[in-house]
Write a structure and sequence with these properties.
single chain, mainly alpha, binds heme C
Length: 139
C-alpha cells in the first residue's frame, strides 16, 4: 500500500517537474553567440521543426523515399550554412545534446525500418529537443 503510494507520487513528480521547472525563473544555461551564429542556430531550429512536421505528413502518406530526401535536404542545408567557428563557441554539453539527435534523424531517413520504428525515433528525437530547450537558452 505505502509502496504503491510512493511510486504514484514519484510518477507524478517526474511528470510535473519539468513543466514546473520551465515556468520558474529562467535557470537555463545561457549560450552566448554572435549575430551570425545566432541566426544560423535559430534558423536551423525552425528548419528542424518543419522537417519534423513533414516527417509526420510523409509517414501518413507512406512516402518513405520522399522522407529520406527531405531529411537529407535538411542536413545538407545545415552543412552549407554553418558559420565557421561555431563549434568552438558552443559548450560541450550543448554539442553532445545536439549530436544525440543524430541516430534518430538517421533512423527517420532509413526506408528499411518499419513505420512504427520510425515513429518511435521521431518521438525520441522530440524528447531530445525538449530536454535541450529546458537546459539551454541562447543570448
Ligand atoms: C542542443 C540543444 C538543442 C536541441 C537538441 C534542439 N534545440 Fe531548439 N533551441 C535550442 C535553444 C537553446 C533555443 C533558443 C531558446 C531560447 O533562447 O529561449 C532553441 C530554439 C528553438 C526554436 C525557436 C527558434 C526561433 O526562431 O526562435 C525552435 C522552433 C526549435 N528550437 C526547435 C527545435 C526542434 C524541433 C528540435 C528537435 C528536432 C530542437 N529545437 C532541438 C536548443 C536546442
Amino acid at each position: 500500500m505505502a509502496k504503491g503510494l510512493i511510486s504514484a507520487l514519484l510518477v507524478t513528480l517526474c511528470l510535473t517537474w519539468p513543466a514546473a521547472n520551465a515556468l520558474a525563473a529562467d535557470e537555463r544555461m545561457a549560450v552566448t553567440l554572435n549575430d551570425e551564429q545566432k541566426s544560423f542556430v535559430l534558423g536551423h531550429m525552425r528548419d528542424m521543426l518543419e522537417a519534423l512536421t513533414d516527417t509526420q505528413q510523409l509517414l501518413l502518406e507512406g512516402k518513405r523515399e520522399e522522407l529520406r530526401q527531405r531529411i537529407a535536404n535538411l542536413q545538407s542545408r545545415e552543412q552549407a550554412n554553418r558559420p565557421k567557428g561555431l563549434g568552438k563557441q558552443i559548450p560541450p554539453a550543448f554539442r553532445a545534446m545536439a549530436q544525440s539527435m543524430r541516430p534518430h534523424w538517421q533512423a527517420i531517413q532509413n526506408p528499411d525500418l518499419s513505420e512504427e520504428e520510425v515513429r518511435q525515433h521521431a518521438v525520441d528525437l522530440m524528447r531530445v529537443c525538449n530536454a535541450c530547450h529546458l537546459t539551454f537558452s541562447i543570448q
